[in-house]
Amino acid sequence: xxxxxxxxxxxxxxxxxxxxxxxxxxxxxxxxxxxxxxxxxxxxxxxxxxxxxxxxxxxxxxxxxxxxxxxxxxxxxxxxxxxxxxxxxxxxxxxxxxxxxxxxxxxxxxxxx
Amino acid sequence: xxxxxxxxxxxxxxxxxxxxxxxxxxxxxxxxxxxxxxxxxxxxxxxxxxxxxxxxxxxxxxxxxxxxxxxxxxxxxxxxxxxxxxxxxxxxxxxxxxxxxxxxxxxxxxx
Lengths: 113, 111
Known about the structure:
The complex is a heterodimer.
Chain A: E1 4-7, E2 10-13, E3 19-25, E4 31-38, E5 42-51, E6 54-57, E7 65-66, E8 76-78, E9 87-94, E10 103-104, E11 108-112
Parallel strand pairs in A: 2-11
Antiparallel strand pairs in A: 1-3, 3-8, 4-5, 4-9, 5-6, 7-8, 9-10, 9-11
Chain B: E1 5-7, E2 10-14, E3 19-24, E4 29-37, E5 44-49, E6 55-58, E7 61-65, E8 71-76, E9 85-93, E10 99-101, E11 105-110
Parallel strand pairs in B: 2-11
Antiparallel strand pairs in B: 1-3, 3-8, 4-5, 4-9, 6-7, 7-8, 9-10, 9-11
């Protein structure tokens, strides 16, 4: 089954404790991206990647890191999480670019205390 | 960053009524996508419109892309409770790979 898998689905942690949210897709897609969704602010793109080893900033990259060492994986790293990063996070992938239909994961709800 | 403004932000209607959701920008978009998101799930693509003036139909849903490719609309005929959800438009500006989403329209269809 074609899918985008995020882990964990839920995480409660404390300020400053490094964490990684994993994202994996099995559709051989080139384009992958991370979003955060907040009430009243909608979905905002954090980072996107056009291909292996190619990443670029979205609208809200501050406080986040990503890497794309393999085509199928695109982890989101919070080196020193802060409470303002409490949010619902989605990973997505598409065939080539942002213009192509996006396939979303089920989301990761992060709470930073 | 290109901005996409959606209106209305909230919409509550009775089953059987018609409604239209708008997605507007001052920028030109290569294409616009419409998604529907249900609570606890990721957005799911409904349709992509590519050509200015294009109209696409998906059962009771009609999508239109403006002639200048700066705006789009979603019209639902005879809404049903199963149409309840968050409707999102999204697009990449001309020459950009960054995908921008509107803030969404939260639709509630009351039986």
